Amino acid sequence: MGLSYAEENYLKAILKLSGSPDGTVSTNAIAAQLDTSAASVTDMLKKLSDKELITYQRYKGASLTEEGQRVATMLVRKHRLWEVFLVQSLGMTWDEVHEIAEELEHIQSDRLIDRLDVFLGHPKFDPHGDPIPNAQGKYTLRAQFPLTELKPGQEGVVIGVREDDTSFLKHLNDKGLTIGKSIIILSNDEYDNTLRVSVDDLELNLSGKVARSILIKPV
Amino acid sequence: MGLSYAEENYLKAILKLSGSPDGTVSTNAIAAQLDTSAASVTDMLKKLSDKELITYQRYKGASLTEEGQRVATMLVRKHRLWEVFLVQSLGMTWDEVHEIAEELEHIQSDRLIDRLDVFLGHPKFDPHGDPIPNAQGKYTLRAQFPLTELKPGQEGVVIGVREDDTSFLKHLNDKGLTIGKSIIILSNDEYDNTLRVSVDDLELNLSGKVARSILIKPV
DNA sequence: GACATCTTTTAGGTTTGTCTAAAAAATATT
DNA sequence: AATATTTTTTAGACAAACCTAAAAGATGTC
To answer: What is the pTM of this model?
Structure first.
């Protein structure tokens, strides 16, 4: 009945990589995502296919079945609820919670997750601004766009990020850029592709790469 | 550096079985505790010995080294802190938390455990009345004795149990016997070895076996 | 359409943790 | 002390999840 950590991680990777709901994902893409060899991926795809969690044909890539999608979405739900707990209850920072949640998401107990959800007050978004699926797998999207869309003089509030890379989040944290902070664009250097912005009355520079990964909503 | 779940479970089993601090534990005892074969235990004892977490000689049993004892004690700390969280914060009952904590105790992050300890207010005892080691591995014992020591007319308060078997805890729960409840001994049938007691103005019978596993302190 | 390249799979091997069956050591019995 | 019994270890195998190297299939280029 229960799946191994490895099986669960493959399902999560496939969900993450399949942009469209039933998009198929290549062996190499999964190998890159999980930092493993293509040969190992092929082995696992066969196993998940036998368990009817994915549909898979040799040389044709894989896609989640309905059941696989359900399992993967519940993993995302668990991951994000634990992240909220770590930040909101334990006072950890958003750059240090991802790896811990990566372990916590594998704890097996539906009842635990339901209680945690209640305890946290049914949060709809995690500390990175990503939506948390409910027990039925449904989640709310929200209007958000990258910081680079704003023009000089305009203002936005940080509601999330596009990556969960620890060093990236730590970088933002060090600059004082966290969820809820208000950012005003001062200038936009088209030539070297950097932004000068104001946060908490402090001015700082952001590279285009970083700015593109910061998600905001208009004020 | 990090240990596998299996290695950690062996260390915990050895700690649990070594009554005296440096008591040695037999291969069969560990096999019974972990519900595995003696051959598997022998394999693992060799590995843990190579890692200098236990001292082990063929046919002579095993005992924890100082480092092994430290690791095992921290696992107990993690297990019991998580149990407090599950009961106190999430409102779960003491009979359902053991198995979940058995998984949670393996999550790797000292910082997480320190924050959890702070969040819970540095609890000294878990929901079953067992002491929680602090970050240095020290813990407080407390005056406690089995319910069977009380004589008719005497009163005691439940502060723990001697087993963590789920069905046993569920049984107590169903009878309304939880931590903090006050029990008065009404009579003691020496012949068939049962007690008649009063809890919350309700009378009930307890077998000698059950009564021996309930730990109380005098009022 | 033939050749080169990239992707994916197969084949064979490793490690971890488990198992059963058989051998060896320790302990108990008479 | 010799024998029987129990405990523990060794030997050999297996499943899960991974690896490298080689083969097979798909794709791109001229």
So the answer is: 0.82
A110 burial via Cβ count (<10 Å: 0-12, 13-18, 19+): exposed
**HSE toward the beta carbon, residue B9, CA cutoff 13 A:** 15
Pair of tokens at residue B109: 């992050």
Write the DSSP symbol of residue A153.
Answer: T
Distance between B150 CA and the closest CA of chain A, angstroms: 37
Tell me, what's the pLDDT at A110? 96
Judged by CB atoms closer than 8 Å, whether chains meet at B111 and A89 is answered as no
Q: How far is CA B70 from CA B64, B65, B76, B105, in A?
A: 9, 8, 10, 14
Structure tokens at A166: 């620890």
Q: Which residues, at least 6 apart from B106, have a Cβ–Cβ distance to it below 8 Å?
A: A103, B5, B8, B75
CB of B49 within 7 Å of some strand C atom: no
How long is the CA B56 to C1' C23 vector, in angstroms? 21
3-state class percentages of chain B: helix first, strand second, coil last, to nearest 5: 45, 20, 35
Sign of CA dihedral B118, B120, B124, B128: negative
Mean pLDDT, all residues of chain A: 91
Helix (H, G, I), strand (E, B) or coil at A144: coil
Mean pLDDT of B94-113: 96
